[in-house]
Write a structure and sequence with these properties.
The longest helix is centred in the last third of the chain and has 23 residues. Strand 4 and strand 5 form a beta hairpin. About 4% of the residues have low confidence. Strands 2-1-5-4-3-6 form a six-stranded mixed sheet, with helices on both faces. The radius of gyration is 22 Å and the shape is globular. Helix content is 60%, strand content 10%. Helix 1 runs antiparallel to helix 6 and helix 10 packs antiparallel against helix 11. The chain contains 18 helices and six strands. By secondary structure, the protein is α+β, with helices and mostly antiparallel strands.
């Protein structure tokens, strides 16, 4: 059974069925995949409401799929992929509402007691995202979850075999997302490093920073004034990070000033938030284009971007050749001519660059980083890291944190 092909077909069917989105998590809780355009707010919500932890807890002891519901009325469905009865990955669909619900009513009820610790920018975007969450009848959503389970395991089950759990919303101050200045600093450091590197795979870092911080603390009772000040400061530091990534001062300041003016002219908090995210994405893409030399042909640039967006697994030359319509032999020769290195060497360099970022800006262990980036063993990861940087991962971490 080819799980990958099954899941691709399943995801296509879900997008045809009211835009029910798909997610894939590793057994350690890391998000591997999502086709949800609002994942920057809905992925954190899955964790905030305790569903991520409950999913991993259930997956260790059960094989049948599960419904996870928050007291806010959001529902997710989870199917568990296992290897020799050990949890390997969790495949998630949702969120959906099980019935027509007033977003304003439930949002104000839960917000008043549970989300006040989170940043205004994140809460505002979360509220907007709720309006796009589809409503799905229980029987239809159950059918979809049973289909997902079949795609993952090849086994048929009845609706009665699906496990259901209503998760109580955790206290924001006591879980792993505890807000402290060190966490804010680490999240912001990761964000700026991604600008400097032109890293298109940036959404997780941006999500984390939005949740941790409202931005610059200013003494004002006007939320719009606070948001505008934060937008100005954020634009300024991202602009400088882009210059460190190779963008010319003339281009960087011109772009940054335009976004600052847009933030000053904005009329709502959500508009300012959207401007900041657009600005961040714009600068990252400009640095990315600059770092991926313009003399690379379009197919070779596409191969480079594909490898950079799939750092968690080994990419074979045949896969890239199929992507751009070349033979393996021709692609291998063309890639070496244009980039000066082989496909495997380029992929390894990209993974080591991501490892450097994680060592500097996260609390992940060296073993977890090795696993997340698809290295076969920690010793092989350390060997590759030393060859590229001249240092061990531990030595690099001690020097740069």
């Amino acid at each position: 059974m080819d799980i990958h092909q099954n899941l691709e077909l399943f995801r296509e069917l879900m997008l045809c069925d009211g835009s029910i989105y798909s997610w894939c998590y590793e057994a350690n809780g890391n998000l591997l995949y999502s086709n949800c355009p609002d994942q920057i707010v809905l992925a954190p919500a899955f964790e905030i409401f305790g569903c991520l932890g409950k999913m991993l807890e259930i997956g260790k002891t059960r094989s049948n799929p599960a419904f996870l519901s928050s007291e806010m009325g959001l529902v997710w469905g989870v199917a568990f992929e296992k290897s020799e009865d050990v949890l390997y990955r969790c495949h998630v669909i949702g969120p959906v509402f099980s019935s027509a619900i007033s977003v304003d009513t439930i949002f104000h009820t839960v917000m008043s007691k549970d989300l006040s610790a989170y940043s205004t920018a994140w809460v505002q975007r979360f509220r907007e995202a709720l309006y796009q969450v589809p409503t799905s009848q229980y029987t239809i959503f159950s059918r979809n979850l049973r289909l997902l389970h079949y795609c993952v395991t090849g086994k048929r089950i009845e609706i009665s075999e699906i496990y259901a759990d209503i998760v109580d919303l955790k206290s924001p101050r006591t879980d792993s997302l505890h807000r402290d200045r060190h966490s804010v600093y680490m999240a912001e450091k990761a964000m700026l490093r991604m600008v400097e590197q032109g890293d298109l795979n940036y959404k997780q870092a941006l999500s984390g920073s939005m949740m941790l911080s409202d931005g610059v603390g200013v003494s004002t009772k006007d939320p719009m004034t606070s948001a505008r000040v934060s937008a100005i400061v954020f634009s300024s530091i991202v602009c400088r990070a882009a210059m460190r990534g190779g963008i010319s001062p003339d281009e960087a300041y011109s772009v940054g000033d335009a976004y600052i003016q847009s933030a000053l002219d904005a009329g709502t908090l959500d508009e300012i938030s959207t401007i900041c995210i657009s600005m961040y994405d714009d600068f990252i893409r400009r640095v990315h284009r600059h770092r991926n030399k313009q003399d690379y042909s379009s197919p070779i640039r596409r191969c480079c971007e594909y490898m950079e967006m799939n750092l968690d697994r080994s990419i074979r030359a045949a896969e890239l050749a199929s992507l751009v319509g070349y033979s393996v032999t021709y692609l291998t020769r063309r890639f070496k001519e244009e980039t000066g290195m082989g496909i495997g060497d380029y992929a390894r360099l990209c993974r080591i660059e991501r490892a450097k970022l994680l060592l500097e800006t996260s609390d992940m262990s060296i073993q977890d980083i090795s696993d997340a980036l698809g290295f076969s063993t920690r010793s092989y990861f350390s060997q590759c890291f030393r060859e590229v940087t001249g240092m061990t991962p531990k030595g690099y971490q001690q020097k740069n944190t």
